[in-house]
Write a structure and sequence with these properties.
By secondary structure, the chain is α/β, with parallel strands linked by helices. The chain contains eleven helices and nine strands. This is DUF6734 domain-containing protein.
Length: about 290
């Protein structure tokens, strides 16, 4: 069985302020529940790595038990002060991975694995959802990045290597994990702050892992590929990422999605119906389900 972890660094939601109320969208709550419970059902144990504010919110919602390996608050005070949380909003992901022992799976809370996948990844040193193509708008050339004077990109990094979608990342090689996270942290600490919230973050999170693996001669395996995704040929997982903005704008789609999630949770994990029923934020959708 594979040990996994979710992560949630709440600071980017508040642009550095510690005195505001943390909020999760209803569909985010439901995908988090499904992601944790389905992983436990099919693949192994899972924990949440977060900070005190995140842990308190999960406790208030009554869902801390979905992580059978517990809730870890080690993200408090561990992320370097030179890292801009607005620019590097997923830095918590890198720091969470740094603290884990390999082999482990890092899973975004909007990523649900429906089936056992151990046989798929058993021989992998690193496995991600799929490789991505290099678009100049998302993955620009080296000269684009504005770095502090003392920073130097590794001359052995191959900038033609396709980046990785890391919403699911399985790493079994400790040396690769350490090289990747250390390289990402070094980059984030030395990037000069800007309003660009995309290219710098995806370089640190998604492009560096493929570059580091290539330098070490380690192949990066994929659960699927972009062609299969576009043809809707895979059934092992669901990634909600691209649908979030639509649900924020369209209540009918949001309602349909939330009701489907509630139905699936209660059918597969009836012991969690009381948790759903007691959550004010889900009251409307639970009533429609009933």
């Amino acid at each position: 069985m594979i040990k996994a972890f979710h992560l949630n660094w709440t600071i980017p939601s508040f642009q550095g302020s510690y005195d505001k109320h943390y909020y999760m969208e209803d569909f985010e709550i439901l995908t988090t529940i499904l992601s944790a419970l389905k992983w436990r059902e099919n693949n192994g144990g899972i924990k949440m790595v977060t900070d005190e504010r995140g842990a308190e919110h999960y406790k208030t919602l009554g869902i801390e038990s979905i992580w059978n390996l517990g809730v870890d608050v080690s993200l408090d005070n561990c992320i370097h002060k030179d890292i801009d949380p607005k620019m590097f909003w997923a830095a918590g992901k890198i720091y969470s991975l740094k603290k884990q022992q390999t082999p482990c799976a890092m899973i975004d809370t909007d990523f649900i694995v429906w089936k056992p996948i151990e046989e798929i990844i058993v021989d992998s040193k690193v496995c991600i959802i799929h490789k991505e193509t290099i678009s100049e708008k998302v993955y620009p050339r080296k000269k684009y990045f504005n770095m502090k004077n003392n920073y130097k990109f590794d001359e052995d990094w191959d900038w033609t290597e396709n980046p990785c979608n890391t919403a699911f990342t399985y790493i079994a090689d400790e040396e690769l994990k350490n090289y990747y996270v250390d390289s990402a942290i070094d980059f984030m600490k030395n990037a000069i702050s800007s309003d660009d919230r995309l290219t710098n973050m995806v370089f640190a999170e998604q492009r560096l892992i493929s570059m580091c693996a290539k330098k070490m001669g380690i192949p990066v395996d994929e659960l699927t590929n972009l062609d299969s995704l576009f043809k809707n040929e895979q059934t092992n997982f669901t990634h909600i990422w691209g649908f979030k903005s639509e649900m924020k704008k369209n209540f009918a789609q949001r309602s349909e999605f939330c009701i489907r999630c509630i139905k699936r949770i209660i059918e597969d994990f009836p012991e969690y119906e009381e948790v759903i029923a007691n959550m004010k934020q889900l009251a409307y959708f639970y009533k429609q389900y009933k």
